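Entry type: protein chain
Record version: 2
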Amino acid sequence: MVLHIVVVAAAAVHILLRPHRQPESRAAWLILVLLLPYVGALVYLLVGQTNVGRRRVERLKAAFRKLPPPETAPGWPSASQVQNQHAALFAVGRSISGYAPTGGNSARLMEDSDAAIRALVADIDAAVDHVHLLFYIWLADRNGTAVAEAVQRAARRGVACRVLVDDLGSRALVRGPLWRDMAGAGVEVRRALVIGNPLLRALTGRIDLRNHRKIAVIDNRITYCGSQNCADPEFLPKARFAPWVDVLMRFEGPVVRQNQHLFASDWMGNGGGDIGHLLRQQMVDTKPGFTAQVVATGPTFRNSAMPEMFETLIYAAKRSLFVTTPYYVPDAAMQAALCACANRGVETTIIFPARNDDFAVAAASRSYYLDLLQAGVTIFEYEAGLLHAKTLTMDGAISLIGSANMDRRSFDLNYENNILLEDVDLTTTLRARQEAYLERCRQILPEEVGRWSVWKRLRNNGLAIVGPVL
């Protein structure tokens, strides 16, 4: 009995004193510890703290600080011209990760996942100086092998190739022959956030804090950003949810240097050599183009930065807001922002997957439907696979794409990378892609949600209570 009290009291005190925790998150952990004292305390020890390890944090932060800011490169273009009504959006982005909005960018939206891989392989085959790739998940399937073989070809002709993958998300790759083949061809390969012995790692940092970024930088000239991992849309580890439908954009212009800076900080922060010299290379002559900005978040950046970015965009919308996200477990502020958006007359549309690879997240997401619908948000569920695209378009001029979901993991736990941009033409193109998804969607109406069984509502609402610990 005494041990029981000590365990509960110690865990409760730690939960209540831990900084940067939302009240609902504290409440969820307290309920778990009170109901299952020993199991709850152990789970909290393993996954209840946003801690990647003190030494690791110092290394990652030091790498980010050490690198020269992108705008110090010779020939960096003059300040971009952001529309006054959008200036605050980019100010928030800059306050998060320090990257200033920069003009002179161009981009092309890839047709689909396979077309994106073909374009990436073609760019790697044309590389003359360096190829940098970072993926959360890299599979040794058709597309993953095609990219790996292209990197090997580049390395053999003398191009400096650096590949960084998340140690958990790409665990099958790093244990297989394709990883060894890349290393044998001269590719520098590294693992981000190495787990090692899970029991020992749990003592120094949370195991499931992952590098969820997807970054490709080629010759300081081209970068890719979006939701796509280095894998086939059939995504064999979870084939029953396939195809996985993603969005990827190919960028040129100064924003490439910002993604380069972010890759370099991850590379050096995870034990790679100093590649800061690449950020000092002369900028090529920039052409007229749109304004863009990298928005990077993670446990070593400002707390709750990603939801702040999302909520700023939602509150700024005046005419239209269209969102696609596979995982929706919002904090109270984000749910309120979306309801307020529709309540003030903004055309607000969200697409979720009809079948989600994470049943708990899917159920928790649906617990929020009724409030959204009653506020006037239009909800669709995509039925032709798992819509994995993370996109936001606003007022026909602003787009946000990248790796971040609208869930607690992307908000607090994962390292994410997004690009915020201001451009009517590109936003129109992305909005058209979002609307094309509607052809394979089913609209969710308030009457349908009202007919859900008691059991379904109990399951959804019960899992939403523990959403802060998902």
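Comment: The mean pLDDT is 89.
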